[in-house]
Design goal:
The protein is mostly beta strands. The chain has a single domain, classed as Exo-inulinase, domain 1 (Jelly Rolls, Sandwich), CATH 2.60.120. It is about 10% helix and about 30% strand. The protein has 1 helix and 15 strands; from the N terminus they run αβββββββββββββββ. The chain starts with a helix and ends with a strand. The mean pLDDT is about 90.
Length: about 240
């Protein structure tokens, strides 16, 4: 009987070892494509440039008309009393790089200091705000780098107004079933000025100002939006990589 038990234990051990080895294998099926990295403030070779300089040809208003936001050289800024702007091209899951600057002479009312935002699919916002040293206080999931009213940033990595800042964002788009029910939610990973501030956080629905949100079926790709919120926030060097 002892010999039988020992034999069973040995078989279980080696069986477990074999099973573990099968989880660790060499992949010769999918060869990663070649991409030249970003250098000298230029986008990587497979990126789509959404703004580089001199024009907003890749952007428009929601009704399809031409944007009247101001452009000067390699930057543009929110023009007061003009609406949000949208990319002409639609995107789903993606990697986005965008650089932005809060004007150093803002004099607006509370909760409007450098207020803008990047909306993925026009629905899911990464907030822009003057949050340097918490000078202009706002609820934590409304400060710079927050997923608006859903996730506060892990840390406050903001620079002072008047200095250029950057977001590098990985967005995983939500997926819907054939019956239009939610199959998988949206996720964000965000780096602000090279520091991770959102680590693969899950969204409960679109980012809205009201106290309740939930997913509603939408297309798998929709335009990116930059918010006009009464503050002359500047933008430059915007590029995007689609993630399939």
């Amino acid at each position: 009987m002892k010999q039988i038990k020992l034999t069973i234990m040995v078989l279980m051990f080696f069986g477990s070892a074999v099973a573990q080895k099968k989880n660790n294998f060499e992949d010769w099926e999918r060869k990663p494509g070649l991409v030249n990295p970003a250098e000298n403030n230029r986008p990587p070779s497979d990126a789509i440039t959404l703004f580089e300089k001199n024009n907003l040809d890749n952007w428009q208003y929601s009704n399809g008309s031409k944007s009247k936001w101001k452009v000067s050289g390699n930057e543009f800024w929110v023009t007061l009393n003009e609406p949000d702007i949208y990319t002409k091209q639609s995107f789903g899951s993606c990697q986005l790089h965008v650089e932005w600057k809060i004007p150093d002479d803002e004099t607006h009312d509370n909760l409007n200091w450098g207020n803008s935002g990047i909306y993925f699919m026009g629905l899911y916002e990464v907030q822009i705000y003057d949050s340097y040293n918490n000078k202009h206080e706002i609820y934590y999931n409304g400060q710079a780098g927050s997923i608006y009213k859903q996730h506060s940033p892990l840390v406050n990595a903001s620079k002072p107004a008047g200095e250029w800042q950057s977001f590098d964002i990985i967005f995983t788009a939500p997926v819907f079933n054939e019956d239009k029910s939610l199959k998988s939610p949206a996720f964000f990973t965000v780096f602000q000025n090279g520091i991770i501030i959102q680590n693969h956080v899950q969204l409960i629905g679109p980012t809205v100002h009201t106290d309740f949100t939930e997913y509603q079926f939408h297309e798998s790709k929709l335009p990116l939006m930059i918010q006009s919120h009464g503050s002359k926030v500047s933008y430059r060097n915007i590029w995007i990589r689609e993630l399939n």
